[in-house]
Amino acid sequence: MIAVELAHAADFDGWRAAARSLAGAAVAGESVVWRVKGDAADLFGDEPKGPMPAQSAAGALTVSRHFLDLAERVVCHRDPTRFALLYRLLLRLQEQHRLLDHATDDDVFRADAMAKAVRRERHKMTAYVRFREIVTDDGPAFITWFEPEHHVERLSAPFFVDRFAAMRWSILTPEVCAHWDLQALTFTPGTTRDFAPDDDRLEEHWRTYYANIFNPARLKIGAMKREMPMRYWKNLPESSLIPGLIQKASAQSDGMIASVPMAAPKRSPKILAQQEAGKPAARHEGGLDGLRHAAEGCKRCPLWANATQTVFGEGRADAQLLFVGEQPGDKEDLAGRPFIGPAGQLFDRALAAAGIDREAAYVTNAVKHFKNEPRGKRRLHKSPNVSEINACRWWIEQESALLKPRLTIAMGATAVRSLTGESHSVLKTRGQVLASPFVGDVFVTVHPSFLLRLRDEAEKAREYDAFVADLETVRRLAYG
User: Fold this and answer.
1) Do 335 and 469 belong together in one domain?
2) How many domains, the chain?
3) Is residue 106 part of a domain?
4) Could you tell me which residue, 197 or 441, shows the higher pLDDT?
């Protein structure tokens, strides 16, 4: 049995050096006892038998930066088994190089949980330390008291050096104290709360500041206690204000609401004018023809600027089937008609195979302008984003309200997003009828352009047959 004594509770460098030597000499984990200097000896552990074994030339270790970062935090945890856990992981990593990617592994899970707890405690220390000023022979100095749950003092101290490099300070804790003298960071043994000052002249200013930034409208007591646990309150000057601020929060919030000015802001006429510029003058005025005419000047989203024209829907005003594609393509943009390019020709062929007369249906797109990116003499298709889809949904709602179809068919992801307001996988929901808050029932299938993008001819034939089968289902659902 080999006993390793570390200099202090968070001695990462000491653990790393010892672990390298032990692992290089192929010492098993159960043959090592890890101790911290000053701790009581293991009642059943053996004393060291000779010097630390030297690492053999053939025992070169390989570990990732990820493991070293993990280990540096885990050694700061208060769990007494942390050193043995890390050494066990080190040995396993020599055979399982991707071990840390397996989050469900017991050792990895425990180490990750410890590292997370240490990161959280380090954040608490940097957030809830409050320095108090004292006067010394060398000038002003600042002292604070903190009681960390884990051994994060050495890990956190460099943060305070960077933040408060121009002042002399000390952070006192029960186990180790950190000191900055404007030149060097040093550590001394822990002390008691009695050595830290209780108050200073700056605390009243801090309490005034805290009371003024306290927002009663955003008060969530449970969240506040989770983020700032009550065990820290006794060392925070603002904690004396918290009960009273909570008690008055409701009345303050009501007062804030009542004090909001009711007059419209100065820019409101301009904002309203900009909003109205993209809307038709009247809802449903003139039926589908009036709606089509209103859409010619649509500027509800920026896509109109780079498109040739609005490509509105077309079909019978009494159509029982409303087919919604994604957006017009290059040919549709130039001609001003939907589904006349290669995808439209394939769509016509599939409709005929399924026994659906396109002339008796209504065909449109979720987005009415061609979104594209110029590449030389060509214009490449670009998928519309969510804001563009949402802006154009108004037109789909009006078309649907005038048509009152028995069934609406969404072809492609953009159409599904437009008609349901949510993102769905087309391949997972294909053949299903989804409820829409905008147009009623929506049948999901692929867009014809999906078939055109397939390279394998056999796969293309299978997908075409599946698309025709979807359209046959549409016919049965609509007409029985």
Assistant:
1) yes
2) 4
3) yes
4) 441
